[in-house]
Amino acid sequence: MWFKNLQIYRLTDEVIIPDELKERLAKQTLQGCLGLEAQSKGWVSPGAEEADLVYSYGQQMLISLGIEKKLLPVSVVNQLAKVRAQEMESHQGYPPSRKQMKDIKEAAYRELLSRAFAVQQRNHAWIDPVGGWFVVEGASAAKADTLIEAFIKSTGCGLQRISTTMAPVSAMTAWLSGDDPPSIFSIDSDSIFRSREDKKVSVSYVQQSPDPQEITRHVQTGKEVIRLAMTWRDKISFILDENLQLKRLTLLDIDREPAETAEEQFSSDFFLMTGELRQLLPELMDALGGMANE
Protein backbone atom coordinates (compact mmCIF):
# COMPACT_ATOMS: atom_id res chain seq x y z
CA MET A 1 0.00 0.00 0.00
CA TRP A 2 1.82 3.03 -1.30
CA PHE A 3 0.05 6.15 -2.62
CA LYS A 4 1.63 7.25 -5.92
CA ASN A 5 -0.54 10.35 -6.46
CA LEU A 6 -1.91 12.59 -3.72
CA GLN A 7 -5.02 14.76 -3.63
CA ILE A 8 -4.57 16.63 -0.36
CA TYR A 9 -7.31 17.91 1.99
CA ARG A 10 -7.51 19.16 5.56
CA LEU A 11 -9.93 17.89 8.19
CA THR A 12 -11.99 20.81 9.46
CA ASP A 13 -13.86 18.95 12.21
CA GLU A 14 -12.90 16.65 15.02
CA VAL A 15 -12.38 13.20 13.54
CA ILE A 16 -14.39 10.28 14.79
CA ILE A 17 -12.60 7.22 16.13
CA PRO A 18 -12.20 4.08 13.97
CA ASP A 19 -15.11 2.15 15.55
CA GLU A 20 -17.51 5.05 15.07
CA LEU A 21 -16.23 5.61 11.53
CA LYS A 22 -16.84 1.93 10.71
CA GLU A 23 -20.40 2.25 12.01
CA ARG A 24 -21.13 5.27 9.83
CA LEU A 25 -19.55 3.83 6.67
CA ALA A 26 -21.47 0.58 7.18
CA LYS A 27 -24.66 2.46 6.30
CA GLN A 28 -23.42 2.92 2.73
CA THR A 29 -21.52 -0.20 1.71
CA LEU A 30 -21.11 -1.25 -1.91
CA GLN A 31 -24.08 -3.38 -2.95
CA GLY A 32 -23.22 -3.89 -6.60
CA CYS A 33 -25.23 -2.92 -9.66
CA LEU A 34 -28.74 -4.33 -9.61
CA GLY A 35 -31.11 -4.62 -12.54
CA LEU A 36 -30.85 -1.57 -14.78
CA GLU A 37 -28.32 0.26 -12.60
CA ALA A 38 -25.29 1.33 -14.67
CA GLN A 39 -23.16 2.23 -11.65
CA SER A 40 -23.09 1.66 -7.92
CA LYS A 41 -20.79 2.98 -5.22
CA GLY A 42 -20.23 2.32 -1.54
CA TRP A 43 -17.58 1.61 1.05
CA VAL A 44 -15.51 -1.56 0.90
CA SER A 45 -12.69 -3.08 2.91
CA PRO A 46 -9.37 -1.35 2.15
CA GLY A 47 -7.07 -3.97 3.64
CA ALA A 48 -5.28 -6.90 2.08
CA GLU A 49 -7.18 -9.51 4.09
CA GLU A 50 -9.08 -7.19 6.39
CA ALA A 51 -12.86 -7.46 6.63
CA ASP A 52 -13.43 -4.12 8.38
CA LEU A 53 -14.39 -0.99 6.46
CA VAL A 54 -11.67 0.96 8.28
CA TYR A 55 -8.10 -0.27 8.39
CA SER A 56 -6.28 1.31 11.31
CA TYR A 57 -2.65 1.19 12.37
CA GLY A 58 -2.01 3.19 15.49
CA GLN A 59 -3.92 6.43 14.99
CA GLN A 60 -3.75 6.28 11.20
CA MET A 61 -6.76 5.09 9.20
CA LEU A 62 -7.36 3.88 5.66
CA ILE A 63 -10.75 3.70 3.93
CA SER A 64 -11.80 2.72 0.42
CA LEU A 65 -14.75 3.66 -1.78
CA GLY A 66 -15.76 0.93 -4.18
CA ILE A 67 -17.27 1.85 -7.54
CA GLU A 68 -18.90 -0.79 -9.71
CA LYS A 69 -19.69 0.00 -13.35
CA LYS A 70 -21.33 -2.09 -16.02
CA LEU A 71 -19.43 -2.41 -19.28
CA LEU A 72 -21.70 -1.55 -22.20
CA PRO A 73 -19.97 -0.07 -25.26
CA VAL A 74 -22.06 2.27 -27.41
CA SER A 75 -21.15 0.22 -30.49
CA VAL A 76 -22.85 -2.84 -28.98
CA VAL A 77 -26.02 -0.87 -28.24
CA ASN A 78 -26.03 0.58 -31.77
CA GLN A 79 -25.56 -2.87 -33.27
CA LEU A 80 -28.60 -4.28 -31.46
CA ALA A 81 -30.62 -1.15 -32.24
CA LYS A 82 -29.82 -1.59 -35.94
CA VAL A 83 -31.13 -5.16 -35.85
CA ARG A 84 -34.31 -4.04 -34.05
CA ALA A 85 -34.80 -1.20 -36.57
CA GLN A 86 -34.51 -3.64 -39.48
CA GLU A 87 -37.08 -5.91 -37.83
CA MET A 88 -39.47 -2.96 -37.40
CA GLU A 89 -38.98 -1.85 -41.01
CA SER A 90 -39.72 -5.38 -42.23
CA HIS A 91 -42.85 -5.50 -40.10
CA GLN A 92 -44.31 -2.06 -40.89
CA GLY A 93 -43.03 -1.69 -44.44
CA TYR A 94 -41.05 1.55 -43.97
CA PRO A 95 -38.04 2.72 -41.92
CA PRO A 96 -38.58 3.74 -38.29
CA SER A 97 -39.14 7.44 -37.64
CA ARG A 98 -36.69 9.51 -35.60
CA LYS A 99 -38.82 9.07 -32.49
CA GLN A 100 -39.08 5.33 -33.09
CA MET A 101 -35.29 5.07 -33.48
CA LYS A 102 -34.83 6.88 -30.18
CA ASP A 103 -37.20 4.42 -28.48
CA ILE A 104 -35.44 1.47 -30.14
CA LYS A 105 -32.02 2.60 -28.86
CA GLU A 106 -33.36 3.14 -25.34
CA ALA A 107 -34.96 -0.31 -25.36
CA ALA A 108 -31.73 -1.87 -26.67
CA TYR A 109 -29.74 -0.14 -23.94
CA ARG A 110 -32.05 -1.41 -21.20
CA GLU A 111 -32.05 -4.94 -22.65
CA LEU A 112 -28.25 -5.12 -22.76
CA LEU A 113 -27.67 -3.32 -19.46
CA SER A 114 -29.59 -5.94 -17.50
CA ARG A 115 -27.05 -8.60 -18.47
CA ALA A 116 -23.88 -6.52 -18.94
CA PHE A 117 -20.67 -7.45 -17.11
CA ALA A 118 -19.62 -5.23 -14.21
CA VAL A 119 -16.13 -4.17 -13.16
CA GLN A 120 -15.14 -2.81 -9.78
CA GLN A 121 -12.46 -0.31 -8.75
CA ARG A 122 -11.44 1.05 -5.37
CA ASN A 123 -10.39 4.57 -4.43
CA HIS A 124 -8.38 4.82 -1.22
CA ALA A 125 -8.10 7.64 1.30
CA TRP A 126 -5.69 7.97 4.22
CA ILE A 127 -6.92 9.77 7.34
CA ASP A 128 -4.44 11.27 9.82
CA PRO A 129 -6.48 12.65 12.73
CA VAL A 130 -3.34 13.82 14.55
CA GLY A 131 -1.93 15.93 11.74
CA GLY A 132 -5.34 16.79 10.31
CA TRP A 133 -4.66 15.28 6.88
CA PHE A 134 -7.15 13.60 4.56
CA VAL A 135 -5.36 12.34 1.46
CA VAL A 136 -7.01 10.66 -1.51
CA GLU A 137 -4.87 8.43 -3.72
CA GLY A 138 -5.16 9.08 -7.44
CA ALA A 139 -4.35 11.55 -10.20
CA SER A 140 -7.98 12.26 -11.09
CA ALA A 141 -9.60 15.20 -9.30
CA ALA A 142 -13.03 13.94 -10.40
CA LYS A 143 -12.51 10.57 -8.68
CA ALA A 144 -11.29 12.35 -5.56
CA ASP A 145 -14.41 14.52 -5.57
CA THR A 146 -16.57 11.38 -5.75
CA LEU A 147 -14.87 9.92 -2.67
CA ILE A 148 -14.99 13.22 -0.80
CA GLU A 149 -18.71 13.62 -1.50
CA ALA A 150 -19.42 10.08 -0.32
CA PHE A 151 -17.29 10.55 2.83
CA ILE A 152 -19.01 13.78 3.86
CA LYS A 153 -22.44 12.25 3.18
CA SER A 154 -21.64 9.15 5.23
CA THR A 155 -19.87 10.79 8.16
CA GLY A 156 -20.80 14.49 8.29
CA CYS A 157 -17.10 15.33 8.74
CA GLY A 158 -15.88 18.55 7.14
CA LEU A 159 -13.05 18.64 4.60
CA GLN A 160 -11.26 21.47 2.83
CA ARG A 161 -8.91 21.40 -0.16
CA ILE A 162 -5.40 22.41 0.89
CA SER A 163 -4.10 25.86 -0.03
CA THR A 164 -0.85 27.65 0.79
CA THR A 165 0.21 31.25 1.30
CA MET A 166 2.51 31.08 -1.71
CA ALA A 167 1.04 29.66 -4.90
CA PRO A 168 2.93 26.55 -6.06
CA VAL A 169 3.46 28.16 -9.49
CA SER A 170 5.16 31.19 -7.92
CA ALA A 171 7.37 29.06 -5.68
CA MET A 172 8.41 26.62 -8.42
CA THR A 173 9.20 29.44 -10.84
CA ALA A 174 11.29 31.20 -8.20
CA TRP A 175 13.19 28.01 -7.31
CA LEU A 176 14.14 27.39 -10.92
CA SER A 177 14.97 31.06 -11.44
CA GLY A 178 17.64 31.09 -8.76
CA ASP A 179 15.96 31.13 -5.35
CA ASP A 180 17.06 28.14 -3.32
CA PRO A 181 14.30 25.88 -1.99
CA PRO A 182 14.57 24.78 1.65
CA SER A 183 17.61 22.56 2.12
CA ILE A 184 15.47 19.46 2.74
CA PHE A 185 14.28 19.65 -0.87
CA SER A 186 16.28 19.25 -4.06
CA ILE A 187 15.21 20.09 -7.61
CA ASP A 188 15.21 17.23 -10.12
CA SER A 189 15.31 17.22 -13.91
CA ASP A 190 11.62 17.25 -14.99
CA SER A 191 9.70 20.51 -15.38
CA ILE A 192 7.05 22.22 -17.47
CA PHE A 193 6.91 25.93 -18.29
CA ARG A 194 3.58 27.33 -19.52
CA SER A 195 2.61 30.73 -20.90
CA ARG A 196 0.50 32.91 -18.62
CA GLU A 197 -1.37 34.37 -21.59
CA ASP A 198 -1.89 31.25 -23.72
CA LYS A 199 -2.37 28.07 -21.71
CA LYS A 200 -1.80 25.99 -24.83
CA VAL A 201 1.81 27.17 -25.12
CA SER A 202 4.21 25.16 -22.96
CA VAL A 203 7.75 23.81 -22.90
CA SER A 204 8.55 20.48 -21.23
CA TYR A 205 11.85 19.14 -19.95
CA VAL A 206 12.04 15.39 -19.31
CA GLN A 207 15.13 14.02 -17.57
CA GLN A 208 16.84 17.23 -18.54
CA SER A 209 17.30 20.45 -16.59
CA PRO A 210 17.01 23.76 -18.48
CA ASP A 211 20.13 25.91 -18.34
CA PRO A 212 19.96 29.35 -16.66
CA GLN A 213 19.69 31.16 -20.00
CA GLU A 214 16.69 29.07 -21.03
CA ILE A 215 14.99 29.67 -17.69
CA THR A 216 15.56 33.43 -17.96
CA ARG A 217 14.16 33.46 -21.48
CA HIS A 218 11.06 31.52 -20.48
CA VAL A 219 10.35 33.80 -17.53
CA GLN A 220 10.96 36.98 -19.53
CA THR A 221 8.53 35.81 -22.22
CA GLY A 222 5.77 35.29 -19.66
CA LYS A 223 6.07 31.62 -18.82
CA GLU A 224 5.82 30.07 -15.37
CA VAL A 225 6.55 26.64 -13.94
CA ILE A 226 3.44 24.49 -13.51
CA ARG A 227 5.14 21.13 -12.78
CA LEU A 228 8.45 20.42 -11.09
CA ALA A 229 10.22 17.22 -10.07
CA MET A 230 11.61 17.32 -6.53
CA THR A 231 13.14 15.08 -3.90
CA TRP A 232 12.51 15.36 -0.17
CA ARG A 233 15.34 14.50 2.26
CA ASP A 234 16.74 11.99 -0.26
CA LYS A 235 13.82 9.75 0.70
CA ILE A 236 10.91 10.47 -1.61
CA SER A 237 10.86 11.87 -5.14
CA PHE A 238 7.68 13.41 -6.55
CA ILE A 239 6.19 15.87 -9.02
CA LEU A 240 4.63 19.02 -7.59
CA ASP A 241 2.03 20.63 -9.83
CA GLU A 242 0.18 23.94 -9.98
CA ASN A 243 -2.85 22.56 -8.13
CA LEU A 244 -0.81 21.42 -5.14
CA GLN A 245 -1.13 17.80 -6.17
CA LEU A 246 1.77 15.41 -5.66
CA LYS A 247 2.30 12.88 -8.42
CA ARG A 248 4.60 9.96 -9.16
CA LEU A 249 5.71 9.54 -5.55
CA THR A 250 8.62 7.14 -5.40
CA LEU A 251 10.19 5.79 -2.24
CA LEU A 252 13.98 6.00 -2.47
CA ASP A 253 16.68 4.06 -0.60
CA ILE A 254 14.64 3.20 2.48
CA ASP A 255 15.08 -0.27 3.92
CA ARG A 256 11.92 -2.34 3.61
CA GLU A 257 11.99 -5.68 5.35
CA PRO A 258 10.07 -8.42 3.52
CA ALA A 259 7.05 -9.75 5.39
CA GLU A 260 5.93 -13.36 5.66
CA THR A 261 2.29 -12.76 4.71
CA ALA A 262 0.40 -10.34 2.47
CA GLU A 263 -1.38 -8.90 5.49
CA GLU A 264 1.91 -8.24 7.28
CA GLN A 265 3.32 -6.63 4.15
CA PHE A 266 0.26 -4.43 3.85
CA SER A 267 0.63 -3.28 7.46
CA SER A 268 4.35 -2.65 7.06
CA ASP A 269 3.89 -0.61 3.89
CA PHE A 270 1.05 1.43 5.40
CA PHE A 271 3.11 2.17 8.52
CA LEU A 272 6.08 3.24 6.41
CA MET A 273 4.01 5.37 4.04
CA THR A 274 2.11 7.23 6.73
CA GLY A 275 5.23 7.77 8.79
CA GLU A 276 7.05 9.41 5.88
CA LEU A 277 4.12 11.43 4.53
CA ARG A 278 3.30 12.82 7.98
CA GLN A 279 6.73 14.49 7.84
CA LEU A 280 6.79 15.38 4.14
CA LEU A 281 3.43 17.16 3.93
CA PRO A 282 3.92 19.78 6.69
CA GLU A 283 7.47 20.49 5.50
CA LEU A 284 6.23 21.00 1.95
CA MET A 285 3.51 23.34 3.24
CA ASP A 286 6.16 25.32 5.13
CA ALA A 287 8.25 25.57 1.96
CA LEU A 288 5.23 27.18 0.31
CA GLY A 289 4.79 29.76 3.06
CA GLY A 290 2.47 27.76 5.27
CA MET A 291 -1.18 26.86 4.90
CA ALA A 292 -3.42 29.78 3.95
CA ASN A 293 -6.58 28.45 5.53
CA GLU A 294 -5.24 27.88 9.05
From TrEMBL:
Among InterPro entries, the record links this protein to: RdgC
Q: What is the lineage of its organism?
A: Bacteria, Pseudomonadati, Pseudomonadota, Betaproteobacteria, Nitrosomonadales
Please give one Gene Ontology molecular function term for this protein.
double-stranded DNA binding
Q: Where is the signal peptide?
A: none
Looking at the record's lineage, which domain of life comes first? Bacteria
Keyword Cytoplasm annotated: yes
Q: Which family does it belong to?
A: Belongs to the RdgC family.
Pfam families for this protein: RdgC
Cite a single GO BP annotation: DNA recombination
> Which UniProt key words apply to this protein?
Cytoplasm, DNA recombination
Q: Where in the cell is it found?
A: Cytoplasm, Nucleoid
Q: Which PANTHER family match?
A: RECOMBINATION-ASSOCIATED PROTEIN RDGC
What is the recorded name of this protein?
A: Recombination-associated protein RdgC
Q: Which GO terms describe its cellular component?
A: bacterial nucleoid
